[in-house]
Amino acid sequence: MKKEITVKLLKNPENFIYGEEMYAYISMLEDEGRLSELPKNLYVYYVLSLFADEVNNGGAEQYLDNSSGKAYPDLRTCAEHLSHEVITPFILDLCDYIDEGGDDFESFDERFYQIEKVYELRKAALKYYKENFSESKIKFQVVREKESAACRYFTVAEEEKCGDVAEGLKAFLEVLACFSDMRWKIFMHTSINGKYTVYGRSFDGNTDLPALMANWAESNARGGAHRKMCACFGDVSVESLAEGKKYGVSITESGFGKGEYKMKHKFISAGYDTVNARGFTRITLKKFPGKSHGLYEKIKSFLETNYKNYPNIDGVAEEGFLP
Question: How far apart are CA 23 and CA 50, in angstroms?
Fold first, then answer.
C-alpha cells in the first residue's frame, strides 16, 4: 500500500512547499502537466513565484530554458487568476509573444524589472495565496523523488547486510579508513534528552559531497563498507564545508524498494569564515536510544578496542563539541 501524507497549508507557503515529500509531489505534477490539481491558491503561488524568481535571476529566456519552463503552460492561467491590474496584463502580453514564436525578450525583461520595482510579483502572489484559501490541507501519495545531482539512490543486496551492530561499526571504521588522507577522531555525543550519536570528525579538509554521492554506491572499497554501514544503521549523514557554508548528505531508506537507500544533498548553514575556520568533514551514524539499553557500552567497547587497527583514526572520546 502506498504511503499517504497530509500537509497543512501554512500561512507562508515557503515553510512547507519545498519540503522533500511535498516538493517531490509538486515536481511529479509539473512533469505530468497536472499542477492545476494543487489547491488553487497554492497553484497560483507556486507558478508565479517560480516565474518571478527565474526572470529576476536571468530573464524570461532563463525561465523558459531551465526546468522552470515546465510550468509555462500554467503561467497564463495563473496570471488570470491573480487578476492584478499591472502584473496580469504584462504576463499575458509575454505569453502571447512566446506563443507566437517570439524569442527576443530584452524589452519584456526591462518591462518586468520596472514593474517589479513597484509591485513585487512574489508579494502579489503571496497576497493572493493568503486571501484565497479554499482548503486548509492537502493529502497526497508520497512519490519517489527524481534522481538528480542532489538526489541519488542505491540498493544494498541481502548478502551485503550486516548481521549485528559490531559488523556495522566495523564498516563505519572501514569507511573512515577510506579517507586515507584524513585523520579522524570518533566521538560518542550524548544530548540533553539522553539519546546519543556516534560520529567521526576530521579537520584535514573538506569533502566534495557531490562526488561522494556519485561514487558511494559504486564503491567496493573494503568489502563494500559504505553500503554495509548504511544497511546496518539506516540513517547516516556526511557533512562538510564549502565556501564558508556547511552542506550535508543524508542517507536513509527510501521506502520505495527493498534495500533501497536515498542520498540527499542539502544546504545546512552559512556564516563560516573560510579563512579562519578549519575545513572539516563529519560522518554521523543515527541517533541511538538512551544508555539504559546497554548498547552504549557495547558500542564504546567495540570502538575503543578496534580503532587502533586503522592508522588514520586517533581515538574515541565520550565528549566532543559539534561544530
Answer: 13
Least confident of 90-99, 141-150, 188-197: 188-197
Break the chain down into helix, strand, coil percent, rounded to 5.
Answer: 50, 20, 30
Residue 163: C-alpha distances to residues 159, 227, 229, 302 (Å): 10, 13, 11, 15
- For the entire predicted model, the pTM comes to 0.72
On whether the CB atoms of residues 60 and 109 are closer than 8 A, the answer is: yes
**Is the pLDDT score of 322 beyond 50?**
no
CA-closest candidate to residue 140, choices 29, 33, 45: 29
Instruction: State residue 69's pLDDT score.
Output: 93
Torsion (CA) 63, 141, 263, 157 in degrees, nearest 10 = -140
Candidates 153, 259, 281; CA nearest to 214 is 153
For 314, the enclosing helix (H) or strand (E) is strand 313-317
User: In whole angstroms, what is the distance from residue 145 CA to residue 24 CA?
Assistant: 5
CB contact at 8 A, 282 and 182: no
Q: Are 163 and 280 in contact (CB under 8 A)?
A: no
Angle at which helices 106-119 and 121-131 pack, to 10 degrees? 60
